[in-house]
Design brief:
alpha/beta; 14 strands; 199 residues; Rossmann fold; 33% strand; four-stranded mixed beta sheet
Amino acid sequence: MSDADVVIIESGGANLASLHHALLRLGARSRVSADPAVIAAAPRLLLPGVGAAADAMSRLRGHGLADLIRTLRQPLLGICLGMQLLYEHSEEGDTPGLGLLAGEVRRIPPAPGRPVPHMGWNTCRPLQGDPLFNGIGAADYFYFVHSYAAAVTDCCRASVDYGEAWCAVARRDNYCGVQFHPERSGRAGARLLRNFLES
């Protein structure tokens, strides 16, 4: 069982320490785990991810977590690749995802002045109200690092403009995701994490 406020699901991401410290600054206790019992008992969950979709999904399946994640009822926030894994499919490695959000994650097409990966600070355009964005305005910036992204669909709550509109925040029921890194996004990222902790 877990006595943490948040359990960070071990998916092989390299941003685990920065997430832990961002939560600590907010007064939240966190632990990293791949134990299905710990994850099932957690009050809130983070699904981070840095790297390739196929590798991350392979790790989740190897720990017996892919099927478990699909049954969870507590709030879960996917971050960057973790958000992409919530979708049905990713073009990256032709990878089936968790299927919790409808749609496909596609490679961002490069263009002059718009290199891939999309790396840097961008604002988000709210499309639907979402509790994650309480106290966050359209002029607030978030830090993005990604080469793949999901299209704007019904589950998209905010978009980011990088050549075209891509989904920056998505939600279905207790599952939500952000394409940016809140733990690296200063005040706005800290506010978003606090909103998640209070959800």
